[in-house]
Amino acid sequence: MELQSVSTRGRTLDHAARVYDLLEPLLLLGKQAEYDLHLLSLLNVSASDRVLDLGCGTGVLTRMIADRLNPAEGGESVGIDAAARMVAVARKKRASENCRFEVMAAEALGFADATFDAVVSSLFFHHVPLDLKESALTEAFRVLKPGGRLVIADMHIPTTRMGALVSHVSRWFFMQPQIGENIRGVLPRVIEAAGFAPPSIVAVYFGYIALFNTRKPNA
């Protein structure tokens, strides 16, 4: 049965599913491997961890996480995306015994409370409006275990002239006010408002993509 995208007011990339694996390395200027490995190091997964990837796209990062987990110990990596075509590509190319993909909106997660040890998101939050950023982070907080890790890489206040140029051109070229929210710096406040510890910015790529690292406080 053909997968169906779920309704969301966020921007989905069904139209780009067939070429996304070709475009993403170009958009990351050849630094995708370095960037993904940095995210993995911040997640610091254990073999038995369960990890959720919000807005997983075609599942490159989700599968890299899964390859560091042990299914025999319960380790599992789950990617969710509202775009059914993205999930179809991810399932075809990257699903495995402990790596699965579901069509699901980040603001309405179909998982029980405290299911995951870590939640990660790469370049997702600049596609959704502010209220959905808030809802998605509230849901991430709910499905994380106490002490669970949250790592987000996304557009933030530019730190270089080139970063500012790319950010502002992207906001107006794609007519995407959600990018404007990110480059005004809303993410740290929204992350903290969802209940997480104040996030630290551990790196900035290309002058406009920040890596945020935080945790759900222990109960």
How would you describe the overall organization of this protein?
The chain is an alpha/beta fold and 219 residues long. The model has no long low-confidence stretch (mean pLDDT 91). It is globular and about 50 Å long. It has one domain: Vaccinia Virus protein VP39 (Rossmann fold, 3-Layer(aba) Sandwich). The chain has 8 helices and 7 strands, in the order H-H-E-H-E-H-E-E-H-E-H-H-H-E-E. Strand 2, helix 4 and strand 3 form a beta-alpha-beta unit. Pfam families: Methyltransf_25.
Layout: helices, strands, pairs:
Blueprint (H helix, E strand, L loop, with lengths): L19 H8 L4 H12 L6 E5 L5 H7 L9 E6 L2 H11 L4 E5 L12 E7 L7 H14 E12 L5 H13 L3 H7 L3 H7 L6 E6 L3 E7 L4
Parallel strand pairs: 1-2, 1-4, 2-3, 4-5
Antiparallel strand pairs: 5-7, 6-7
